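Please, structure for the following, as tokens.
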Amino acid sequence: MNGRHLSEEMQRCIQLCQDCHAICIQMIGHCLKLGGRHAAPDHIRLLMDCAQICTTTADYMSRGSSFHDRTCGLCSEICRRCVESCEQVVGDDQMVKQCADLCRRCSGSCERMASKGAA
């Protein structure tokens, strides 16, 4: 597999990972500004972990790494935990809801890619 022959499903997963990375980075600043439970160290760390694994996973898929199924599995798990964390602090904050939704979609997509194994 190389960059010119990525399946549509993998291309969608890469895009979701990139979008999830971006919103998690934005959320870190947003949550720190909100303060309180939004700025709890565990929540901020999880947003950082999610952003990092999403960009790493997108990179692995983009270059056709034989390890992409493993990074997809970890990305799915971390995104799922990020959803749970966001749901604990959400209140009526639209950006937190947006982040949780995008992380949920990314988790599902990565889970499907992980189940396909290395291509």
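The chain has a mean pLDDT of 93. DSSP finds four helices and no strands in the chain.
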